[in-house]
């Protein structure tokens, strides 16, 4: 946000945009809880450490899902935390099941919903392959998209369902964008009609971008995905989002896929609250 935009906002809009009241309320609640256990707790030091951790994105470990999920900063920070804690799995080349990934997530957030892990797996595997094993790199980028853009994905799914009712044709080829130049065109044997006109889909999705009440990917990133293919499936669209370097840069928490298992924590981009 530019200085001009910041100072043109009312105090109420600024507080709402950056979720300041959420963090003030949470910091006080955490302070009172810890002071019950330790009456000699230094309140100023505690609050200083709380907001330093919040600034650095180190504040979501072992927190309840309602807190982890409540802001885009928390969601992005949690994705980064998951990467920091478990990237050794990727380095070893281990493949894990949906249940195993969920178990890892619950070690960081005890009540993390299984449904979000299922939705992440569908981006990678589709419904009829949910028992397959998934690599760490495939999982984490798909998880980032599903978790960070959850509300946006729900809305673009509704748009997709509306379009497919009028464009369904069993003989049409479906283009699954890969996020690279070598986009493949194939007949989807599992869902032969699962595709819509890509340009019409972009026109339906574009008004959903740049909303203030939920996170959305940059419109230019969606253009990169949808402007170069004739038709697209819904999960193909989500997979292309997961592979998009520009969307990953926009979220700003994970390194590029080529550096996922190599980069040091200090190389990650900080996201301000």
H/E series: HHHHHHEHHEHHEEEHHEHH
Give the overall pLDDT as a whole number. Answer: 85
Q: Describe the main β-sheet briefly.
A: 2 strands, antiparallel
Class by alpha and beta content: mainly alpha
E-strand count: 6
Strand order of the largest sheet: 1-2
- Terminus-to-terminus distance: 11 Å
What does this structure look like?
It is a single chain. The chain is mainly α. It has three domains: 3-56, no CATH class; 66-146, Recoverin, domain 1, CATH 1.10.238; 150-251, no CATH class. 58% of the residues lie in helices and 5% in strands. The chain has 14 helices and six strands. Strand 3 and strand 4 form a beta hairpin. It is globular, with a radius of gyration of 20 Å.
In short:
This protein is mainly alpha-helical.
Write the layout of secondary structure elements.
Layout: H1 3-8, H2 11-17, H3 20-37, H4 43-56, H5 65-69, H6 72-92, E1 95-96, H7 98-108, H8 114-125, E2 134-135, H9 136-148, H10 150-167, E3 174-176, E4 184-186, E5 196-197, H11 198-205, H12 219-226, E6 231-232, H13 234-243, H14 245-251
Antiparallel strand pairs: 1-2, 3-4, 5-6
């Amino acid at each position: 946000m530019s200085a001009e935009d910041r100072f043109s906002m009312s105090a109420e809009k600024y507080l709402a945009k950056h979720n300041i009241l959420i963090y003030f309320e949470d910091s006080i609640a955490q302070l009172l809880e810890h002071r019950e256990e330790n009456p000699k707790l230094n309140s100023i030091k505690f609050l200083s450490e709380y907001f330093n951790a919040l600034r650095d994105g180190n504040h979501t470990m072992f927190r309840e899902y309602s807190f982890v999920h409540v802001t885009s900063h928390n969601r992005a920070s949690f994705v980064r935390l998951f990467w920091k804690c478990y990237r050794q799995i990727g380095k070893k080349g281990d493949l894990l099941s949906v249940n195993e990934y969920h178990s890892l997530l619950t070690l960081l957030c005890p009540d993390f919903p299984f449904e979000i892990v299922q939705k992440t797996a569908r981006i990678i595997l589709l419904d009829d392959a949910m028992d397959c094993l998934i690599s760490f790199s495939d999982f984490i980028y798909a998880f980032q998209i599903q978790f960070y853009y959850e509300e946006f994905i729900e809305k673009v799914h509704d748009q997709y369902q509306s379009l497919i009712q009028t464009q369904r044709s069993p003989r049409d080829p479906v283009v699954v964008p890969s996020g690279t130049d070598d986009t493949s065109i194939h007949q989807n044997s599992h869902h032969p009609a699962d595709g819509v006109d890509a340009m019409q889909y972009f026109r339906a999705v574009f008004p959903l971008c740049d909303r203030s009440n939920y996170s959305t990917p940059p419109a230019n990133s969606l253009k990169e995905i949808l402007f170069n293919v004739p038709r697209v499936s819904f999960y193909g669209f989500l997979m292309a989002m997961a592979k998009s370097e520009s969307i990953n840069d926009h979220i700003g928490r994970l390194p590029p896929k080529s550096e996922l298992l190599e980069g040091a924590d200090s190389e990650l981009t900080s996201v301000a609250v």
